[in-house]
Amino acid sequence: MDCVEQKDSEAKAPSVVDRYYTRWYRADMKGKPCEDHCILQHSNRLCVVTLADSHPILQNGRTIKSINYQISNGCSRLNNKVSGKSKRGGQFVTDFAPLCRITCTDETEYTIYSCIRGRLLEVNESILETPSLLLEKPSTEGYIAVILPKFDESKSITENLLSREEFENVVSKRTGAQSQPS
């Protein structure tokens, strides 16, 4: 009997992301419907930028053709190099700074934004070689970037973001509006 109870408790154990990170969302980024981003905020202030489950890239069985961290002629997020305890040298990003552009096989292009202000610590280079990670594990190995907000702004960065419950309400209203005939 103890084995059955133990298996049930193991099955219900929260994932690392659910356990150590708080999920925040930005819905309809820059007014584009359904282009939702998710920010995973750790207790040490680090924020991981990922795609929300409702993002069009993760819907309808799409496949990714390419991911490009080259934002403009003079700015590539791949050139971002940080060093030292205070993470010197990292590019500073605002909440609407583009992080990368993702092109799907149907030639639809999506720009992924940082959603928060802070210092860009790292971009996920492994999704360049294996774009399927972004589709299969968007909250873990398929993350987009890691950003460290300024210490004095670390509490206020979530003011413009939605909590999980607020985001679920937005998504349910969106799906309710789409399912109603006009």
Given helix and strand content, the structural type is: alpha+beta
Distance between the termini: 55 Å
Shape: globular
Q: What kind of assembly state do the chains in view correspond to?
A: single chain
The biggest sheet amounts to: 6 strands, antiparallel
Low-confidence stretches: none
Q: Please write the string of helix (H) and strand (E) elements.
A: HHEEEEEEEEEEHHEH
How helix-rich are the residues, as a percent range? Answer: 10-25%
Beta-strand share of residues: 25-35%
Tally of DSSP β-strands: 11
Radius of gyration: 18 Å
Q: Order of strands across the biggest sheet? A: 1-2-3-11-10-7
pLDDT averaged over residues? 85
Q: Number of DSSP helices?
A: 5
Task: Briefly say what this structure is.
The protein is α+β, with helices and mostly antiparallel strands. It contains five helices and eleven strands, in the order ααββββββββββααβα. The strands form three sheets. The chain has a six-stranded antiparallel β-sheet with strand order 1-2-3-11-10-7.
Note down, in words, how this protein is organized.
The protein has 182 residues and is an alpha+beta fold. It has 5 helices and 11 strands; from the N terminus they run H-H-E-E-E-E-E-E-E-E-E-E-H-H-E-H. It has helices spanning 2-11, 16-20, 126-129, 132-136, 164-179; strands spanning 21-26, 37-42, 47-51, 64-68, 70-72, 75-76, 92-93, 98-104, 109-113, 118-123, 145-148. A 6-stranded antiparallel beta sheet has the order 1-2-3-11-10-7. Strand 8 and strand 9 (109-113) form a beta hairpin. The mean pLDDT is 85.
